[in-house]
Write a structure and sequence with these properties.
The chain is α/β, with parallel strands linked by helices. The strands form two sheets. A seven-stranded mixed sheet has the order 3-4-5-6-9-7-8, covered by helices on one side. Helix 2 links the parallel strand 4 and strand 5. Helix 5 packs antiparallel against helix 6. The two termini are 35 Å apart.
Length: 196
């Protein structure tokens, strides 16, 4: 079912009660996640909403169009883990057609599955969050054994990357340097990957 609602929104900006203009929107696509981090949820998980309680792809696209008309210039997709949502590829592709900077925050486990979608849609940045650079600590904190998969996904990035190490930002070009930092244990806890 496709929503055919036409809404006229006069060009405007979103201004809060303190007079601040807002041009950045975060959209949580799901509460679901493929990790069970100690600080986030119990090991056995939590009672999740039914899929029917989430916004549909069409509802998300309708709202993003409205917000762009209201002056939104950047949209970040988040979760839970946004890449576990089955229609996330379609959502990314559709939002990427809007005149906004599109970004995503992920735990990195499913990047390999969506890398072509990211590139084809022109996604501008990926924020990959890691709890630790030590495999055993990562497993203990996340209660899952995905450390190698996340690191391998980082090495597969055929892109220039901007990463932070000890408070300093570095431009990483190519897989060899990324692989070197992974082996040395110097990859940061958060990769901010700027797509070309």
């Amino acid at each position: 079912v496709s929503l055919q609602l036409q809404v006229y929104i006069p060009p405007s900006n979103i201004i809060d009660s303190y007079g601040r203009e807002h041009d950045y929107l975060r959209i949580s696509l799901t509460e679901r996640c493929n990790l069970r981090c100690l600080y986030c949820m119990p090991e056995e998980g939590v009672q999740l909403k039914e899929n029917s309680e989430y916004m549909s792809k069409d509802e998300i696209l309708l709202l993003t169009n409205i917000f762009v008309k209201l002056g939104i210039k950047k949209i970040r997709l988040t979760g839970g883990e946004p890449l576990v949502r089955k229609d996330v590829g379609e959502i990314i592709s559709s939002i990427s057609r809007l005149p906004v900077e599109l970004a995503i925050t992920t735990n990195g486990i499913l990047i390999d599955k969506y890398l072509n979608t990211f590139i084809d849609s022109g996604l501008q940045s990926i924020n990959v969050s890691l709890d630790s650079l030590q495999k055993d600590k990562f497993k203990r904190l996340s209660r899952r054994n995905y450390f190698d998969k996340v690191i391998e996904s980082g090495k597969e990035m055929p892109l220039s990357s901007v990463i932070e190490i000890n408070g300093k930002w570095y431009l990483v070009g190519g897989n060899r340097r990324m692989s070197y930092w992974c082996q040395k244990g110097e990859l940061p806890m958060i990769w901010l990957i700027k797509m070309k």
